[in-house]
Amino acid sequence: MDDVPTLSEMSLVRGLGKGRMGYVKLYRTLSPPSPSSPPLSSFTAVKFISRSQASSNGNAKRVFSERNALLELSKHPYVVDLRGTGKDEEHLYFYMKPLLGGALHKHFRAEIPGRFAKNKAKHYTAQLASALSYLHSLSYLHRDVKASNVLLDEEGKAVLADFGYARKVMVGSGGDGKGGRATTFVGTLHAMAPEVLRCEGGGEGGEGGYGFGADWWALGVLVYEMMTGEPPFGYGVGGERGSCKERIMGGGDGAVFEDGIFKGVGASGEDLIRKLLMVEEEDRLTKFEVMKGHEFFEVIRWEEGEGGWVEVGNEPPEFNTDIGDLEVLEDAVGVGGGEGGGDNNVFAGF
């Protein structure tokens, strides 16, 4: 990891957001950057996690899962960059590269008519497919791929974030020989694959668990959402939970979509979405090498990155800089801290 300044060596710029266990703030180093430093090098996003909240209800495992995953994965260009971690009596800290372009869903909803143009959706899909391929090559499942967990950086590059549900699975665990399997019912309903739903409540249908195909399913949901403005099976909130589950279990091959829903998507987009949303995991498109050759990505220039991973060589599409927090670089406004509390030994190894 990078040599990250401590909080005492940085000044607060402003708050960026608040979550269930803490909040994120933007800091700037007190010493000025050198002229040759890359953009935003003097800025750091600091995620504060309350130790008292993180040590209850199994949350400690989620915090360690995120840290351990990012220690291995964060040098990939489409994965959030963890620069370091720290702790004090009240908080745990994640020091990260700022992603100030805003969440992906805010961008496609701001477009007219509430969805991305095809080439923009193709660009972001390609970047996220590259990220998932890299995760899976290191035996990691993300398990919560969705639009709000994808952030844009200052250049408009899509970056996969929130690795709290990430799980490393050993190849062959579960005995299927197709890669690691997980059995815990986690994620966000509207993006869950059928095999994940079968694990709810420890039901018998979930004995086989789920593997990397669950992440590819979630990508299919996201592609559909980027290109149409809504997820394919609904959000599953409130009274829609049951109908959402029922539609998911029908899969993309059996689902009844609204007339004309693919009108702006095109034949190649519809084909990719349906292949990613095949209800049976073994029928689903899950091989990145095959995916790269799909007609949907004909405009994408695939290149090999310095780490051996695949990158998108095309210039990032223009994006709305009024969405997100890019303006904080000129508008330095401080915010108050959150509540911490509680001394414990749960995080002795953090």
| CATH fold-level assignment of the largest domain | Transferase(Phosphotransferase), domain 1
Helix content bin: 25-40%
Average the pLDDT over all residues and give the rounded result. 86
Identify the CATH architecture of the largest domain: Orthogonal Bundle
- The domain tally reads 2
**Helix/strand structural class:** alpha+beta
CATH domain class of the largest domain: Mainly Alpha
Largest sheet: 5 strands, antiparallel
Number of strands: 12
Radius of gyration based on Cα positions: 20 Å
Protein name: Protein kinase domain-containing protein
Pfam families: Pkinase (PF00069)
InterPro entries: Kinase-like_dom_sf, Prot_kinase_dom, Protein_kinase_ATP_BS, Ser/Thr_kinase_AS
GO cellular component, one term: cAMP-dependent protein kinase complex
